[in-house]
Write the structure tokens for this entry.
Amino acid sequence: MHATTVSAPTIQSQLKGGDIGVTTRWQERLIHYQQTIDDLVVDIANPYQISTDERAALAIRIKHANMAIYRCQSPDTVGPDTLTAFAAQLGLGSPDRNLCADTDGLSKIQVEKISTHQRYIPYTNKPLNWHTDGYYHTPDRLIRTMLLHCVRPALQGGTLEAMDHEIIYGLLREQDPRLAEALCHRDAMTIPENRPQGGPHRVQCSGPVFFWDAGALRMRYTARRQNVIWKHNNQTREAVAALGEILSGSGDLIVRRRLRPGEGLVCANVPHRREAFKDSQQIDQARLVYRGRYTRALHI
Ligand SMILES: [Fe+2]
């Protein structure tokens, strides 16, 4: 059996309790984050050519919250080509391809009747629990950026929630540095091998939840209970429970938005979830969201 491990560069310098510099930086980060998520939307006049001001507005939100919501002023004119051009201006290149992606690498997230798609929850109207995209990927396919663009919202529901992983990490560390440390262990979370009938074979992948990648903190996580193996020790169990409590109990630190036509979330693959939804009876009015996953980091 092939197994792959995501490396966990040392974070000891971040974990020393009582370090005034670290504490101050954390408090500043928290304040900036709270201010930013209250003002997360950036209007984009022409997604084919974002202006200097629009770029700066996106960049500051990405810096302080690892995410931004863009709002295209002409939603009806935005299609896959537009998103490809928009992503290119953010330094993203081509999307990572998966089984359900179109030829341009973007995935149409909608309720599907096709059997290959049906086995994946995103292609149903069910709720999607907290996760980062591609948490089961090997390190060579690390998803650093994720884009969700709304063409049509659902008739009811489908609200998106997201939370900056740097804030989650800081809250864990504030609660007890050992909790953060447990989730930085190189075999904290293992996704077992998967051999679906008729689907692609996936190798087992072990790695940390939090890790450093070229100076940026990143997170791989799923709240699902099946097909995930947590490291067998008390510290990890406590840390996973604490992480779950942060995600379920940090209402004021969670971005909650029912994306409207022409709006999208672009983020450093922060953990997110989707509410269940009800579609219109008319097929051409059903919820449609484009998703792009990118191995490149945002470069604005
Ligand atoms: Fe996702």
Notes: The chain has one domain: 3-294. The CA atoms of residues 113 and 123 lie 9 Å apart.
